[in-house]
Write a structure and sequence with these properties.
Layout (H helix, E strand, L loop, with lengths): L1 H29 L9 E2 L1 H6 L7 E8 L5 E2 L4 E7 L4 E7 L11 E9 L2 E9 L8 H10 L13
Length: 154
């Protein structure tokens, strides 16, 4: 008889601990920043569903050849494209060493008055690499060609 009560009490304890763990995870998820699970949007997605000027998000694609222009100070402007649509980007700061025309990139920032105002730029890390999300978006557009002749670069 005592063994049955012990098992029942143990089962209640396990259920209570599991519920506390689930509640803790949900509370932690509630307090995460809005951009914690942020992927990127292609230029076509940005132009199809225009974001509000206050919305921070990521945009990804290829830097169009011949579009990089240096402005005053550390301001750089260029155009990012997914092969279908293009979005002008402005960035003030130091670009990554591997940033170049014709290469994949992802930028974080806001879309204001038709221009993406970038606060951070991420570039590919070597000649063969392109972020998987950028490659997948380009494949969907029919614009992706692996540089090594294989199926993927990532």
């Amino acid at each position: 008889m005592a063994l049955g009560r012990l098992k029942k009490r143990r089962r209640k304890q396990v259920i209570a601990i599991a519920l506390i763990c689930i509640a803790s995870v949900l509370v932690l998820l509630k307090f995460l920043p809005d951009n914690a699970f942020q992927f990127f949007r292609s230029p076509t997605e940005v132009l199809t569903a225009l974001p509000s000027p206050n919305e921070e998000f990521r945009i990804g694609g290829l830097v169009e050849t011949g579009s990089v222009a240096r402005g005053q100070g550390a301001t750089i402007s260029f155009v990012v494209s997914d092969g279908t649509s293009s979005v002008p980007v402005e960035f003030t700061g130091i670009l990554p060493d591997l940033f170049s025309e014709g290469q994949g990139m992802i930028a974080t920032g806001k879309f204001v008055d038709g221009t993406f105002q970038a606060s951070e730029i991420l570039a590919k890390h070597d000649e063969e690499y392109m972020p998987k999300e950028v490659a997948d978006a380009l494949k969907e557009q029919g614009q992706y060609r692996p540089s090594n002749g294989g199926e993927t670069d990532y």
